[in-house]
Amino acid sequence: MGKRIVIIQGHPDPAGGHLCHALAEAYAAGAADAGHAAETVTPATLRLPPLETKAAFEAPPPPEVAAVQAAIGAANHLVLIFPLWLGGPPAVVKAMLEQVFRPAFILHDPKTGWSGTRRLAGVSARIIVTMGMPALAYRWWFGAHGVRGLADGVLRFAGLGPVRTTYFGGVETASAARRAGWLVALRVLGTGAR
After folding, report:
1. Torsion over CA of 41, 102, 72 and 120, rounded to 10 degrees?
2. Local confidence pLDDT in tens for the 194 residues of the chain
3. Angle (deg, nearest 10), helices 176-191 and 19-33
4. Which of 7, 17, 19 is nearest to 176 (CA)?
């Protein structure tokens, strides 16, 4: 039986045509080939503002956020794809995550506080990041701090696990053959829902 997958395609350009869009499409195609149900969410088209107060964070979400919460809540696997901007995900991704990962969504019982059980326990995740610098430099020289913060401070904190990461570096200078190899790799990951 296939898995339910939510792909968050986090490139901030809503017009499309970027590597992140192609990677999301390749992952979705691989998932479909294997009989998985994959749904793609594009934060750039949602136009969600960042939350500014605790009251806003704890308030019921707007309908477009509730729809994303419902999709993630029904999923077995979550995939986040985005270009590295200032060491982490672009602002549109952060704004969407703020809106979606509210206490009432990630906690089974928000009255128990942050020590309560998490609704997304058992949901696996993969973070896929593209960048101009070599991926090795980001991971070892810079410590991948922005992606580790997302993996630990948001996804694992919300109960997701395991959380895996894939980095594609040097994207501006990558050859057509190298980019094609990345798309094949994403299709394979989609097939395995990994």
Report:
1. 150
2. 799 999 999 999 999 999 999 999 999 999 999 999 999 999 999 988 888 999 998 889 999 999 999 999 999 999 999 999 999 999 999 999 999 999 889 887 767 766 677 889 999 999 999 999 999 998 888 878 999 999 999 999 999 999 999 999 999 999 999 999 999 999 999 999 99
3. 40
4. 19
Q: Is the pTM of this model over 0.85?
A: yes
Tokens of 95: 């704004």
Dist CA 19 CA 4 (whole Å) = 24
Query: Is beta strand 4-9 parallel, antiparallel or unpaired with respect to 163-168?
Result: unpaired
Angle between helical axes of 91-100 and 63-73 (0-180°, round to 10): 80
Q: How many domains does the chain have?
A: 1
Q: What CATH code is carried by the domain that includes residue 59?
A: 3.40.50.360
Q: Domain of 172? A: 4-191
